[in-house]
Write a structure and sequence with these properties.
Layout: H1 2-19, H2 47-53, H3 58-66, H4 70-73, E1 79-84, H5 86-89, H6 94-100, H7 106-114, E2 117-119, E3 131-134, E4 140-146, E5 149-152, E6 156-164, E7 167-172
Parallel strand pairs: 1-7
Antiparallel strand pairs: 1-2, 3-4, 4-5, 5-6, 6-7
């Protein structure tokens, strides 16, 4: 039941967010109505389509599919995702990762994935030291910045980024685990 409520809340939040353009930060490279951009232009791709094209994010894409969040993540909505690389997933004990990926664990896996997603587009210049971002699962991540090095929750480092017209992807070197028993 809790899984259905969380999943429903994600869909409602994404829907409401897309209906209120005042909340969405303006993307620097968003196409205007007069530009004829093709679907292959990076400004027109969804976050999920871009993740699927990135061979270093195949484990994350598999987790999104397993958690039944594909439809929500494939929406053409403004959001930022801290995407763990395949190598980041190897840092999780294999038995634990296998357990999370089993049918019946969609709620737990979905909570972890939602802890990597924030509504809105957070460009790199917006990720400032000691900043907190509320993620889709309603828990915060903590940003630390020293020069050009950005760390999430004191551990996960951003190793690369992909800027989209309607989203931002930061490839990180750790899987973020939501705090246990902490709710807003």
């Amino acid at each position: 039941m809790k899984y259905l409520i969380q999943r429903g809340a994600l869909f409602i939040a994404l829907f409401l967010y897309s209906c209120n353009p005042k909340q969405a930060p303006k993307a620097e490279n968003a196409p205007t109505a007069t530009e004829n951009k093709t679907a292959t232009d990076s400004t027109q791709k969804t976050v999920l389509a871009t993740l699927m094209e990135n061979k270093d994010c195949s484990t994350l894409v598999a987790a999104i599919n397993q958690a039944k969040l594909t439809e929500a993540v494939s929406k053409f909505l403004p959001f930022t995702i801290f995407a763990p690389s395949n190598e980041a997933f190897t840092k999780i004990p294999k038995a634990r990762l296998d357990e999370l990926m089993k049918p019946g664990n969609e709620e737990r896996l979905g909570n972890i994935i939602q802890y990597h997603m924030a509504l809105g587009i957070y460009r790199e210049n917006m990720l400032v030291d000691k900043n907190e971002l509320e993620m889709v699962n309603t828990q915060d991540v903590h940003i630390t910045r020293e020069g050009d090095k950005i760390t999430i929750n004191g551990k996960a480092k951003i190793v690369s980024s992909i800027s989209l017209g309607r989203g931002m992807i930061y490839i990180i070197d750790e899987v973020l685990m939501p705090p246990v028993g902490v709710t807003k």
